[in-house]
């Protein structure tokens, strides 16, 4: 797309309100475009509409009228969650109208370099970690995107000496064209969101758009342990920096099986106590290995968070953040809400909120992070998966299951196949708050001292809740009122 100022006196349609839609609508309106905002929700469910109407922006709620998209529309900015299969999108394609997401608009107006993070799992933790590292190093980060703050709003505030640290979803990336981050990080790629993308190929292609416009002057950070990331590492044009939990890399950040770190400059080997401990290290282009932190000293648990730590360290090192700063933030960070968040301990039973686990892989990796027996609360929006990937972890690590949401019977079937006998099903005809409260009570009744009650749904939340945040917050409230 062109710079937003090029749409002065031209018709621009914003599909979907929410934070990003409001920010984009205001931007185009201020630059003189003729803006129409459309949302399928009724007007009383669109509190943002009044603010835009007061500015003189046309707002249409309650559906997508046939007259919305026509030959005089020059650009459509689509909320990332809106599928490409709805009628306005089909009509736009027929008329050859350009369709982008807010990310493309934000890129066009941003004067600061962008450090962008995507992946099936771990985006928010990694993005937050990078922001903290850059803040400590005095690099003036602005954290935005899928993490909560509208990217366009943040981009307009950015100065050239800021660093935009941006979490991006595949939905957002799919609608980009000229978007060009200075540093692009892909954490992992697992099968998810196929109801939106239609195929794994489209999902991967959307993630890969993160690197599409990078050049040799940019940096692409990729997970060497992920087969799709490994393939993309050979295809991108940017300078590649790898991270790995399983292999010692010629250049990159990886987990070393002991604390002895080669110091080739001095030809010395420095052994620390507990030399069998795993450490995160960085091997630079000269082959010198620099210790960063012992894995056991990372501030949040779970092997997946070690992976996130590796990626965050890569981004920070690319911007010359000192090793001491990286080590300090990896040690002191205590996690992000709704991501393996310790809520409370009742009667020696630990309650954890991992509502952000919206796919099976995230749930499996979370369960694997505990040594204790797990009572799992799982289930949610049905996207067509059979959830067979949960079979082994159910068989080996899950002591009991409380199933909720549209997928409850599918997940229960896997639990039964795995030989699990402690199973409860919560009636989803109840109010969401009552259903999650019942799930917490049932899980607590199954648990013994020393067990973990874990909300890790393996599903999106939209069957019963407005967001995974609402689901997690209701879970926490229910735990605190046991």
Automatic annotation (TrEMBL):
Annotated pathway: Cell wall biogenesis; peptidoglycan biosynthesis
GO molecular function, one term: UDP-N-acetylmuramoylalanine-D-glutamate ligase activity
EC number: 6.3.2.9
Domain Mur ligase C-terminal: 338-459
Keywords: ATP-binding, Cell cycle, Cell division, Cell shape, Cell wall biogenesis/degradation, Cytoplasm, Ligase, Nucleotide-binding, Peptidoglycan synthesis
Compartment annotation: Cytoplasm
UniProt cross-references to InterPro entries, sorted A to Z: Mur-like_cat_sf (IPR036565), Mur_ligase_C (IPR004101), Mur_ligase_C_dom_sf (IPR036615), Mur_ligase_cen (IPR013221), MurD (IPR005762)
Cell wall biogenesis/degradation listed as a keyword: yes
Known catalytic reactions: UDP-N-acetyl-alpha-D-muramoyl-L-alanine + D-glutamate + ATP = UDP-N-acetyl-alpha-D-muramoyl-L-alanyl-D-glutamate + ADP + phosphate + H(+)
Annotated binding of ATP, by residue: 119-125
Stated family: Belongs to the MurCDEF family.
Protein name as it appears in the record: UDP-N-acetylmuramoylalanine--D-glutamate ligase
């Amino acid at each position: 797309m062109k710079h937003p100022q090029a749409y002065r006196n031209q018709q621009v349609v914003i599909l979907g309100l929410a934070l990003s839609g409001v920010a984009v609508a205001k931007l185009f309106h201020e630059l003189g475009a003729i803006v129409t905002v459309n949302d399928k929700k009724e007007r009383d469910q669109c509190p943002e509409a009044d603010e835009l109407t007061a500015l003189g922006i046309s707002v249409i709620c309650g559906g997508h009228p046939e007259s919305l998209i026509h030959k005089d529309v020059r650009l459509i900015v689509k909320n990332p969650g809106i599928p490409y299969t709805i009628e306005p999108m089909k009509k736009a394609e027929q008329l050859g109208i350009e369709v982008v997401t807010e990310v493309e608009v934000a890129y066009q107006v941003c004067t600061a370099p962008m450090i962008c993070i995507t992946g099936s799992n771990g985006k928010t933790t990694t993005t937050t970690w990078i922001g903290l590292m850059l803040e400590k190093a005095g690099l003036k980060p602005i954290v935005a995107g899928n993490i909560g703050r509208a990217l366009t709003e943040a981009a307009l505030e950015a100065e050239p000496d800021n660093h935009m640290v941006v979490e991006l979803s595949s939905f957002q990336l799919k609608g980009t064209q000229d978007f060009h981050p200075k540093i692009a990080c892909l954490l992992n790629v697992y099968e998810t969101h196929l109801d939106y993308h239609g195929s794994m190929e489209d999902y991967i292609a959307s993630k890969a758009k993160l690197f599409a416009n990078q050049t040799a002057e940019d940096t692409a950070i990729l997970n060497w342990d992920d087969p799709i990331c490994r393939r993309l590492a050979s295809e991108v044009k940017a300078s590649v920096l790898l991270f790995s939990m399983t292999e010692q890399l010629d250049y990159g950040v990886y987990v070393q099986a002991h604390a002895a770190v080669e110091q080739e400059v001095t030809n010395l080997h420095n052994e620390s106590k507990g030399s069998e401990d795993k450490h995160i290290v960085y091997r630079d282009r000269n082959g010198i290995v620099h210790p960063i932190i012992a894995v056991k000293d990372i501030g949040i648990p779970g092997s997946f968070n070690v992976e996130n730590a590796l990626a965050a360290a890569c981004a920070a090192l690319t911007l010359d953040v000192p090793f001491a700063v990286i080590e300090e933030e990896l040690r002191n960070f205590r996690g992000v809400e709704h991501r393996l968040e310790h809520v409370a301990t009742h009667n020696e039973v630990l309650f954890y909120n991992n509502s952000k686990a919206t796919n099976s892989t995230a749930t499996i990796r979370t369960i694997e992070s505990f040594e204790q027996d797990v009572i799992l609360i799982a289930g949610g929006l049905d996207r067509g998966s059979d959830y067979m990937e949960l079979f082994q972890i159910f068989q080996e690590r899950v002591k009991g299951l409380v199933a909720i949401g549209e997928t409850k019977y599918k997940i229960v079937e896997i639990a039964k196949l795995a030989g699990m006998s402690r199973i409860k099903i919560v009636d989803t005809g109840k109010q969401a708050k009552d259903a999650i409260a019942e799930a917490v009570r049932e899980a607590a009744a199954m648990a013994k001292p020393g067990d973990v009650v874990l909300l890790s749904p393996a599903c999106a939340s939209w069957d019963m809740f407005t967001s995974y945040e609402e689901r997690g917050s209701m879970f926490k409230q229910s735990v605190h009122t046991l």
